[in-house]
Design goal:
68% helix; four-stranded antiparallel sheet; 474 residues; Outer membrane efflux proteins (OEP)
C-alpha cells in the first residue's frame, strides 16, 4: 500500500520554519551593495520598478547629459547595464533555496479501493498516512548548506559587479585612446595637405621635381587612409562603451573627452601589494565559502547514508463485509544492504580535496598577478614619462630642423618625409604607452577590489591602428 509522507507536526513546523520565512532577497542585495561601496566607492541598484529605481534612472540620465569621465562611465555601467541586473536574480535563487531547505515535504493522501474476489460483495476501502520521521532531523543540516550557498551567491554577485566595472573602464579607456589617435592623424592630414599645396606651388614655378610632388601627394593619400581607419576604430570603441554601459536609443548620444589624462601626481602605491591582494581577494573568500558549503554538504551526505529513512504513519481500513473500521500504526525502514552510502561519502571527500587544491592554486595566482601588475605599472609609467621628456621633444626638434634644411634646399623631400614619419610613430607609441598605463591602473584597482584580472591590458584599438600605420609606411 502506498504511504503518505508527512514530515512533522504543526508545532515542529513552526519551530523549524521560524528562522527563515521570507523569499525576499533584499537583505542579501544590501549586503552586496555595501561590499561594492566599501571596495569601489560606487553604488549599485537593483531595478525592480520602485520609486528608488526611478530616481536611479534619473541619476543615469543626469550623468549622460554631461561629458563622460572614467568614474561616471563606471557608475552608469553599474546602475544601467541589464546584463549585470540579471546577475542579481542569483541572490533571489539562493534565498529561495534557503527557504526551500527549511520547508517540510507535502503530505500525500493515499486511498485504496479493493474489490473482493467473491462477486456481489462491496469493495473494501483503505486510507493511509505516513510521514518521514528522520527527514525532519535533516532540515537543520540542509539549511546550513543552503545558507552557505547564499553566502557564495553574494560573493559571486559582488565579484561579477567588480569585473563589470573593470570591463566598462577598459572600454572607456580604449575609446578615448582611439579618439586621441584620430586627433593625431587629423593633424597629420592637415600637415600633409599644407605640404602638398606648397609642393604644388613649387612645381608650377619649376622649383621642384615631379617625383617630389608625387611623393607629397602620396603622403596625403596615406594620411587620409590612416585617418579613416582610426575613425572606424572610434565607432567600434564607442559601441563597446555603449554595450558595457547598457545604453540604447537617445542614451547613445553621450560625449566624452578626446584625450587620455596625462600622468601626474603620486603614482599608485604598490607597497605590500601581494599581502593586500590576498587580504582583499573575493576569489579566496569564495574558495573559503565553497569549502564551508562542501563541509556542510558532507555532513548531510554522511547523516543520510548512515541513518536509514524511518517512516511512521497511520493506516485506516474498512471491511465492507463486516461493516467495521480498523486502524493501526505503520512503520517503514530502509535497509542499507546494497547502497551503504560509501560512494556518496567518497565523492564528497574528493570534492572537498579538490576545493582545497583550487583554493591554494588561486592564492598562488593572486600573488603572481600582483607582482606582474606591479612590474607593468612601474614600466608603463616610466615609458610615458620617457616619451614626454625625451622622445616627443626630440622628434619635434628633428622635424623642425629637417624642415628648415628642406626649405633651404639643403636636404631632400625623402629625409623630410622620414622625419615626419618618425614623429607620427612617436606620437602613436606615446598614445599606446599612455593607454597601457591606464589599463594597468584598471587592473590594479580590480585586484585591490578583490578580483583577479582576467588577462593583460586591453590594447586592441590603438595597437590595431598603429600596426596598420607602421606597416603601410609613409
Amino acid at each position: 500500500m502506498r504511504k503518505i509522507k508527512i514530515i512533522t507536526s504543526v508545532a515542529l513546523s513552526g519551530a523549524i520554519l521560524g528562522g527563515c520565512t521570507t523569499l525576499s532577497a533584499e537583505q542579501a542585495f544590501e549586503d552586496v551593495a555595501l561590499t561594492i561601496e566599501e571596495r569601489t566607492g560606487q553604488r549599485i541598484d537593483w531595478d525592480q520598478g520602485t520609486d528608488d529605481d526611478l530616481a536611479a534612472r534619473a541619476a543615469v540620465d543626469m550623468l549622460l547629459s554631461r561629458p563622460l569621465t572614467l568614474k561616471s562611465a563606471t557608475q552608469i555601467a553599474l546602475m544601467n547595464n541589464r546584463g549585470l541586473q540579471s546577475t542579481y536574480t542569483e541572490l533571489g535563487i539562493a534565498q529561495a533555496g534557503l527557504v526551500q531547505a527549511g520547508l517540510l515535504k507535502n503530505p500525500v493522501f493515499d486511498v485504496s479501493i479493493i474489490d473482493p474476489v467473491e462477486g456481489g460483495l462491496p469493495a473494501n476501502l483503505a486510507f493511509g498516512v505516513v510521514f518521514q520521521f528522520i527527514d525532519a532531523l535533516y532540515i537543520p543540516l540542509r539549511r546550513r548548506v543552503a545558507a552557505s550557498k547564499l553566502e557564495e551567491a553574494k560573493i559571486g554577485v559582488a565579484s561579477q559587479v567588480i569585473d563589470h566595472a573593470a570591463a566598462a573602464q577598459s572600454a572607456y579607456i580604449d575609446y578615448v585612446a582611439a579618439r586621441q589617435l584620430v586627433e593625431l592623424f587629423r593633424q597629420v592630414e592637415n600637415s600633409a595637405r599644407a605640404s602638398l599645396e606648397a609642393a604644388k606651388a613649387l612645381r608650377e614655378a619649376g622649383n621642384t621635381t615631379e617625383l617630389d610632388f608625387e611623393t607629397q601627394q602620396s603622403l596625403l593619400t596615406e594620411a587620409k587612409l590612416e585617418l579613416a581607419q582610426a575613425e572606424a576604430l572610434v565607432v567600434e570603441g564607442r559601441e563597446k562603451v555603449n554595450l558595457a554601459l547598457g545604453l540604447t536609443g537617445d542614451q547613445t548620444r553621450w560625449s566624452a573627452a578626446s584625450r587620455l589624462p596625462s600622468i601626474s601626481g603620486v603614482p599608485a602605491s604598490t607597497r605590500q601589494i601581494e599581502k593586500r591582494a590576498v587580504e582583499k581577494s573575493l576569489d579566496l573568500e569564495a574558495g573559503r565559502q565553497r569549502l564551508i558549503t562542501l563541509a556542510h554538504q558532507y555532513g548531510v551526505d554522511t547523516a543520510t547514508s548512515i541513518i536509514p529513512d524511518l517512516e511512521i504513519g497511520l493506516e485506516v481500513e474498512r471491511e465492507e463485509a463486516e461493516k467495521e473500521w480498523s486502524r493501526g500504526p505503520t512503520f517503514g525502514l530502509v535497509l542499507p544492504i546494497f547502497d551503504q552510502g560509501r560512494a556518496k561519502r567518497a565523492a564528497a571527500e574528493m570534492q572537498i580535496r579538490k576545493a582545497q587544491d583550487m583554493y591554494w592554486d588561486m592564492a598562488v595566482q593572486i600573488r603572481s598577478s600582483a607582482r606582474a601588475i606591479r612590474a607593468r605599472l612601474k614600466m608603463a609609467r616610466q615609458q610615458v614619462n620617457y616619451y614626454n621628456r625625451a622622445i616627443l621633444p626630440q622628434s619635434a626638434k628633428i622635424l623642425k630642423a629637417t624642415q628648415l634644411n628642406y626649405n633651404a634646399m639643403q636636404s631632400g623631400v625623402f629625409r623630410l618625409l622620414l622625419a615626419k614619419r618618425s614623429q607620427v610613430q612617436a606620437g602613436q607609441r606615446y598614445i599606446q604607452a599612455l593607454q597601457a598605463y591606464w589599463q594597468t591602473i584598471v587592473q590594479y584597482k580590480q585586484l585591490m577590489n578583490g578580483r583577479l584580472p582576467s588577462g593583460g591590458a586591453q590594447m586592441g584599438s590603438v595597437q590595431t591602428a598603429s600596426a596598420g600605420a607602421e606597416s603601410g609606411g609613409h
